[in-house]
């Protein structure tokens, strides 16, 4: 009895303390201007510890610079679109929104976004692909401070021990991955989840081979899926790829269970933290020697919903600050992204050797929604299902892709 | 009865209002939290509801087109079959194991109470935690289950094969559901008078005969309730499947619930997602009515 009582008092004190810290006036960022600061709300999905901290620094800096107070909310990536749609229907959208670039089309299609030209934000100097990703019906609704893509990361120690060079072609990748497999370890790890994540990981193979999303059942597409399926069937990659998220893939790589992995630049900070791990990064291997890989363009675009009033303009100021070159560089350094302006990216690549492969790839990267616009999610889902079907041996690649084409067309 | 009815006719109006006032909170609750979502879902299933509709609030009426599209989808048969297998597989084993454990624990022995409360653990853990742990255990290369199975030389590709993934999620759900069955059935067993067993024993009945002729028939009302509740709980399971397999690989664990979610939030075909949801509600309501009927007959049995 007495212990319970003490427990209650303790938690009551804790609550009180919490409430008090909640009440204490927070130092106003920027302050000093004297006038009442405008407050805007911001929504993003940098919910992991490292990414969240890096993003918070960017927002803090822009809050100081513009004198606009920012109330930030970070949610898991999977909840982003449902949350935005909910906000759209109840007219409670955040003033500033950072969302994955292929979902921008969906959000813009609701009619809830305002074109960035309203805030004097120009698209000069950006990579074409990122501008395309942010364009819906000829108007630019979103721009990203940094972009990313997939590359092949390899464990230097494991490759040296096996006498294998980092592969550059499909054939080399297959030989290397097979040689590095055995004893419960695998040469290659990638993610083939039945979601956007799986499609995004397959697209570098799909596009580099010359296939296009409007024709999922083309010979080039079948060839790419067959290649990936053979990697799994030959034991060069685990059958578990159908259940691995990209985080799981990174786990396998860090644990030494996979000698190479297909993954994004945002993992570099984590790999650097593993002091015993020596890794290298090369572009995704291509079908034929001398070719250039075409990876899918990743990264989050900032957009401003039509919320009306002066806060909307304030959000515009903050977004302009986030997109300014110094912020761009800072964000890219902190989160291992590629700056989304061509000149800034080139400089950045020269200063950061591990990022070089990513900068090279971004030049030829493609926006996932450029071709299909709002129809992309449906096609992506059909393609992801076909990948799973082929990898699990449920259907041969031709049949799986023919079915996907049918599903995405209807 | 007849007497009162004849006498109080002038005050009848007032009592009618008073009765309605007593009913109002419940009615309000049902309308706001049950009626409105249900109707909204029905309306949505008859509309071409897109992402644009969320902002504009407008969606064209398409009649039964969403239902037709869902029924024509090759995934429909898969989802229905998986839902049936998942529900039946889960309930048979949850109930069987739960009953066996309940009978086992009805005998008093050292530590029986402690063990019984430990068995409640699966029920107390958040489903996402249980699901994530099972996902690790099922891992093909490094999972503990395959480490054991490798000793006998037969590792199973749990979550990577389209044949084994469904059994894997069923196993997970059985583990989660056993405690509920155990607790309710154990309560039912305690209500059976011990004298009956003593009498049967004196008449020379063995353990099986005692179970067959005393426990089973006297436990029947409780059994009915457990099975019916289990059915309604299991048919709508979503989180366990989402965490363990996400409906994959290659849709081999897609049930009506996960498919409804995928249609709405992956394909943005909200009308079709709502249609699948409504079909599910229809099935669950059917079983719910069955449950109410069995409850009524049980009460009648108890009263007689």
From TrEMBL, chain A:
The keyword Transport applies. GO terms for cellular component: ATP-binding cassette (ABC) transporter complex, substrate-binding subunit-containing. InterPro entries: SBP. Keywords: Signal, Transport. It comes from the Bacteria. GO terms for biological process: maltodextrin transmembrane transport; maltose transport. Belongs to the bacterial solute-binding protein 1 family. This is Sugar ABC transporter substrate-binding protein.
């Amino acid at each position: 009895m007495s212990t319970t009582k003490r427990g209650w008092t303790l938690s009551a004190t804790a609550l009180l303390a919490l409430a008090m810290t909640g009440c204490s006036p927070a130092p106003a960022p920027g302050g000093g201007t004297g006038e009442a600061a405008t407050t805007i709300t911001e929504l993003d999905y940098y919910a992991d510890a490292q990414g969240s901290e890096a993003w918070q620094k960017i927002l803090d800096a822009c809050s100081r610079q513009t004198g606009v107070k920012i109330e930030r909310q970070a949610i898991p990536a999977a909840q982003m679109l449902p949350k935005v749609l909910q906000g759209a229907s109840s007219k409670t959208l955040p003033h500033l929104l950072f969302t994955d670039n292929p979902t921008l089309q969906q959000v813009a299609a609701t009619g809830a976004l305002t074109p960035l030209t309203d805030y004097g934000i120009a698209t000069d100097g950006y990579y074409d692909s990122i501008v395309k990703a942010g364009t819906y019906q000829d108007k630019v609704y979103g721009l990203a401070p940094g972009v990313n893509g997939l590359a092949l990361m390899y464990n230097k120690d494991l490759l040296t021990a096996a006498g294998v060079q980092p592969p550059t072609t499909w054939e080399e990748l297959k030989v290397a991955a097979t040689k590095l497999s055995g004893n419960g370890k695998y040469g290659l790890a990638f993610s083939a989840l039945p979601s956007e994540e799986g499609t995004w990981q397959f697209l570098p193979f799909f596009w580099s081979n010359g296939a296009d999303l409007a024709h999922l059942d083309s010979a080039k597409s079948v060839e790419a899926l067959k290649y990936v399926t053979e990697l799994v069937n030959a034991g060069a990659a685990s059958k578990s790829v159908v259940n691995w998220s990209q985080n799981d893939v990174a786990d396998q790589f860090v644990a030494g269970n996979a000698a190479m992995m297909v993954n994004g630049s945002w993992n570099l900070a984590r790999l650097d933290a593993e002091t015993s791990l020596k890794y290298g990064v090369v572009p995704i291997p291509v079908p034929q020697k001398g070719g250039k890989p075409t990876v899918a363009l990743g990264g989050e675009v900032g957009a401003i919903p039509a919320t009306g009033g002066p806060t909307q303009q304030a959000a515009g100021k903050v977004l302009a600050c986030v997109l300014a070159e110094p912020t761009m560089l800072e964000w890219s350094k902190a989160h291992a992204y590629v700056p989304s302006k061509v000149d800034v990216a080139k400089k950045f690549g020269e200063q950061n050797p591990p990022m070089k492969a990513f900068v090279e790839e971004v030049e030829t990267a493609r926006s996932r929604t450029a071709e299909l616009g709002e129809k992309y999610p449906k096609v992506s889902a059909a393609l992801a299902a076909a990948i799973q079907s082929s990898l699990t041996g449920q259907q041969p690649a031709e049949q799986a892709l023919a079915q996907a084409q049918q599903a995405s067309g209807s | 009865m007849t007497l009162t009815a004849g006498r109080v006719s002038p005050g009848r109006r007032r009592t009618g209002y008073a009765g309605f006032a007593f009913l109002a909170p419940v009615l309000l609750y049902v309308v706001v939290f049950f009626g409105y979502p249900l109707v909204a879902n029905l309306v949505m299933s008859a509309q071409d509801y897109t992402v644009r509709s969320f902002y504009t609030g407008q969606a064209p009426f398409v009649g039964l087109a969403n239902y037709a599209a869902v029924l024509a989808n090759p995934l429909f048969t898969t989802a229905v079959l998986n839902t049936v297998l998942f529900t039946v597989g889960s309930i048979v084993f949850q109930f069987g194991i739960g009953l066996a454990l309940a009978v086992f624990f009805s005998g008093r022995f050292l530590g029986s109470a402690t063990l019984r409360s430990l068995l409640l653990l699966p029920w107390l853990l958040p489903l996402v935690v249980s699901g994530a742990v099972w996902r690790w255990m099922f891992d093909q290369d490094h999972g503990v289950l395959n480490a054991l199975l490798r000793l006998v030389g037969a590792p199973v590709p749990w979550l990577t094969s389209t044949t084994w993934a469904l059994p894997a999620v069923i196993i997970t759900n059985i583990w989660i559901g056993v405690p509920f069955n155990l607790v309710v059935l154990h309560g039912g067993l305690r209500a059976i008078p011990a004298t009956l067993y003593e009498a049967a024993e004196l008449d020379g009945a063995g353990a099986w005969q005692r179970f067959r002729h005393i426990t089973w028939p006297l436990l029947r009302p409780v059994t009915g309730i457990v099975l019916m509740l289990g059915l309604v709980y299991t048919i709508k399971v979503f989180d366990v499947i989402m965490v363990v397999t996400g409906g994959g690989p290659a849709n081999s664990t897609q049930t009506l619930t996960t498919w409804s979610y995928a249609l709405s939030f992956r394909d943005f075909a909200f009308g079709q997602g709502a249609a699948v949801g409504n079909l599910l509600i229809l099935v669950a309501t059917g079983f719910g009515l069955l449950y109410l009927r069995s409850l009524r007959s049980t009460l009648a049995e108890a009263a007689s």
